[in-house]
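Our consortium's second objective concerns turning raw sequence data into structural hypotheses that experimental partners can test. To show how far this objective has progressed, the report includes one record in full. It was chosen at random from the queue rather than selected for favorable results. The single chain below, 118 residues long, was entered without modification.
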Amino acid sequence: MDNQNVFQLMEQERNNLFSALDKIAYDPAGGDAYIHAIRSSMITHLPLRISAALSQQKTSIKPRPYLILKNAPVDKEVFFSPCPNQYTPSAKSGNISENFLVGLSSLIGEPYSMYRVN
């Protein structure tokens, strides 16, 4: 593993990002307003070293083969595993994981929702 591809959030950075993402209601349909809110929050709360790496990943002719983000914000509790292809909000304590992944994908590409595709 190449350590140049590994980025770690410090505890305070992770907590700040968690708080920001926790304030945004998850939209399983992936609406434009939701994606804009997530993207804006990620730009504001991600440390520059990580947002710069993501920007470079998006625009590079020779992007990194992978990026590893350590100490990323995740939901505090998972109560059970939901059924595949079924949005089950009661399965966990929030939507931090979904918001974080939508945020990452909005910074390096264009996220989409399977609800919009089907």
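The partners drew two points from this record. The chain has five helices and two strands. The chain has a mean pLDDT of 89. Both points have been shared with the crystallography group to help prioritize constructs.
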